[in-house]
Amino acid sequence: MVRLKSREQIEAIQKGGRIIAEIFENARDWVKPAISTLELDRWIADCIRKKGGRSAFKGYRGYPAETCISTNEEVVHGIPSSRRLEEGDIVGIDIGVKIQGYYADGAFTFPVGKISSKKKRLLEVTRAALYEGIGQIKPGNRIGDISSAIQRHVEKHGYSVVKTLFGHGTGEFLHEEPIIPNFGKERQGEKLREGMVLAIEPMVNQGGSEVRVLPNKWTVVTKDGSLSAHFEHTIAILDGKATILTSLLPEEREYLGG
Ligand code: MF3
Ligand code: CO
C-alpha cells in the first residue's frame, strides 16, 4: 500500500529535508583529509539535534550509528569509525532525519581534497542519474520510468547500477512502498500520483554491479573492489509536480554562502 501524504504532511517531511540539505551545504568544510568518519558522524548528529530532529537510522533494525558513511569501494551503509579520510578518497554520506513524526532521507558523495578526473566523472554521472530519475516524476508516469531513466544514464557512461538495493517511499516510516529499483523498463510498475513521497537513490559502481555485505552485517561493498557512488533526494508530488524536499530554497542557499 502506498501512503499518500497531505500538504501538511509533506511540509513536515520538508522540515527534515531542509536539515539534511543544510548539513550537506556545510559538509564541504568538514569533509577534509584526516577527519575520521566517526567525527563526521558526531558533527552531523549534533547538527540534527540542534535543529530539533533526530537520526532516522540510529537503532533502525539495530543500526549502530547516526549516519551511514561509505568510502571508495563501499556502496552504502558504511558504519562510521576511527578510519580517517585521505586525499583522493570519495565519501558517501547518507542522512535520515525524523522530525515531528516524519522522515526525510538524503545522500551525497563528496570528493576528499583533490580527486582524479575518473573519480570526478563517477560522481557527476551518479548525480546526473539521480536528476534523470527525478525528471520522470510527474502524475501519470510510472516507477519504471524513473528506474529506466537512471539505468540508461548510468550504463550509457559505462558504469553499472546496483541491483539488490532500492529507492523507496518515505514519510511516516523511513521505508515505505513503493520500492524504486535503479533499473527497469519504461511504462511499468506503479503509477505516480499526487501525494506520493519518494526517496530516489542511485548506487553506481565503476565496475560490475555485484555487491557483498561485510562481516559487520551492514557495510555493502562492490564485489570487484571498484569504486561506488550514491546520491539521494526525497521528492514529493505536490500540485502536479515534483518538489525536492531535501534541498534548500534559493534564498536559504545564499544565506549559507553556497
Ligand atoms: N538511506 C538508506 C536507506 O534508505 C539508509 C538506511 S539504512 C540504516 O536505506 F539502517 F542505516 F538506517
Ligand atoms: Co533511502
TrEMBL record:
Reaction catalysed by this enzyme: Release of N-terminal amino acids, preferentially methionine, from peptides and arylamides
Sites where the protein binds substrate: H77, H175
Q: Which Pfam families match?
A: Peptidase_M24
Instruction: Name all Peptidase M24 domain ranges.
Output: 11-237
Q: What UniProt keywords are attached to this protein's entry?
A: Aminopeptidase, Hydrolase, Metal-binding, Protease
Annotated binding of a divalent metal cation 2, by residue: D105, H168, E201, E232
What is this protein's function? Removes the N-terminal methionine from nascent proteins. The N-terminal methionine is often cleaved when the second residue in the primary sequence is small and uncharged (Met-Ala-, Cys, Gly, Pro, Ser, Thr, or Val). Requires deformylation of the N(alpha)-formylated initiator methionine before it can be hydrolyzed.
**Alphabetized HAMAP family for the sequence:** MetAP_1 (MF_01974)
Q: How does it assemble?
A: Monomer.
State the protein's name.
Methionine aminopeptidase
Instruction: Look up and give the organism this protein is from.
Output: Aerophobetes bacterium
